Amino acid sequence: MISNEGVRLGAEAAHHLAQTGLYEFETGLTEAEFRRIEREYGFEFADDHREFLAVGLPINVPPEDGQTWSRPWPEWRSGDLDSLRRQLDWPVEGVLLDVEHNAFWYEGWGERPADGTAALDTARRHLAEVPVMVPVYAHRYLPAGRGSFGHPVLSMWQTDVICYGLDLADYMHQEFDEARGEVDDSWNPRATSRFWRDLL
């Protein structure tokens, strides 16, 4: 059962993005497409993320020079399976990169093994248990989970994790609305996903 508040937030996010005029949209994902994607990749979209994609799929535009992602909007309908898998794996792979090369270790994992391979194996085992993060745009993510909504959008670059929006609707405003002005002191998102919130 999808929540009314999740539907409202997702529709509001799509409306915010459409108002910017930055992107065109394809027809939104159908129930059959959601089922196929969720079965194929082993997660369920949060209610607001699902509604956002049901309203319309943003179409990628050619990248500007120096842009990190050539296709920042995940192409759920017709995208390359390997590319989507890489985007889904990005948060976990980024943490593993920092474990391997930057001496990162999460205190909740216990003592770090002295052997680098053992440390990576231990980290990988623990990361298999953390909440799945689903790409919204480039390296901006929402937690997976049917029946959930209103999570802050996280920008995830290895273990550098920051909030980019109070929720999906606010994120569209923060990321794409050039007229948004400065964020005031009351803007204080609280990440909700276990493990990931500890990296903020």
Features:
4-stranded antiparallel sheet; SMI1/KNR4 family protein; 40% helix; 6 helices; two-stranded antiparallel ribbon; 200 residues; alpha+beta
Q: How would you characterize the overall build of this protein?
A:
With 200 residues, the chain is of the alpha+beta class. The chain has one domain (4-198). Helix content is 40%, strand content 13%. The protein has 6 helices and 6 strands, in the order αβααβααββββα. The two termini are 31 Å apart.
Q: How many runs of DSSP E, i.e. beta strands?
A: 6
Roughly what is the average pLDDT, rounded to an integer?
91
Strand order within the widest beta sheet: 3-4-5-6
Rg over alpha carbons: 17 Å
Order of helices and strands: HEHHEHHEEEEH
Strand content: 5-15%
Distance between the termini: 31 Å
Give a concise summary.
This is SMI1/KNR4 family protein. It comes from Streptomyces tendae. The chain is of the alpha+beta class and 200 residues long.
